[in-house]
Structure formats: C-alpha cells, structure tokens
# Entry
Amino acid sequence: MKAIRADFKALFEQYEAEFLADLKAVLRVPSVRGVKTYQAPFGIGPKRALETVLSIATRMGFRTGQVGDCVGWAEYGPAESQAPTYFGILGHLDVVDVEDDWHYPPFDLTQVDNFLYGRGVLDNKGPLLSTLFALYLIKTQKITFKHRVRIIFGTD
# Structure
C-alpha cells in the first residue's frame, strides 16, 4: 500500500462551504418521529432526512442503497464481488422533538463564534455527514481500500 500524503485539513478547508451547505440541507429536515405509514415507518420527517442524505451521497459518487424505507447506505471501495465483507459505520438521522428553549432556529444551521447550532448537529446528523465527507475526501484523493466502507443511515 502506498503512503498517504494528503493534507486533509487543507483539503477539508477547500470543501468546507460544500459541507456546511449540505449540513444545512440535512438539518432543515425536521426528522422527528411521526405518524407511521407504509412507506415511512417512522414518519415522513425521518424518511425525508434519509432521502436528503442519500441524494448528497449520490452526488458525491458513492454507491447507495436503501432497505425498507427506513435504512440507507453509502459505500466506497471495491465492488461486492471483489470484497464481500465491509467495514460498517452506523448512525441515525432522526432527532428528538424540539422544546421551547432554543436561542436559534432548531431546524437550520446557525454559526456563531465557530460554533454550529441546530437540532442534530451533534446527535447524529452532524457526525454522520462528517463521516460521509471524510470518506468523500478520501475518495477525491483516489485512496483505495482492500475492503468496502459502508456508512449506514438509520431513521430511528
């Protein structure tokens, strides 16, 4: 395996505006658990959050898939026929309902003094999108793996 020499801090700075725009798009989806339907087992909000993230992952050129309208994934690495196993990273896109004590709009991204505010920034939309972007930066550098890496997006 060849040595990795990318400066990922500088690389992230190049993509920071894209990351923040995508995070804002995901945070704008009020993915609070709602009324169960056949096509949205945890409500329409969590399903829309999943659709939003899968759209971002597709735009980035990842292989994507969905299971039962409630779980999706984005994958990078060799094809399944070449690497039947994968390294999985799991998170969720749903959020807890909003209480009245927010100083900033809960379903938007607000930046104040290098802090990010919005429902899901830390639990768990922000970490999942950060993971997706980290894998995207690896992909842009054409770094390859022996195994597939799959980020799994749950909705509950």
Remarks:
- The radius of gyration is 16 Å.
- The chain has a mean pLDDT of 94.
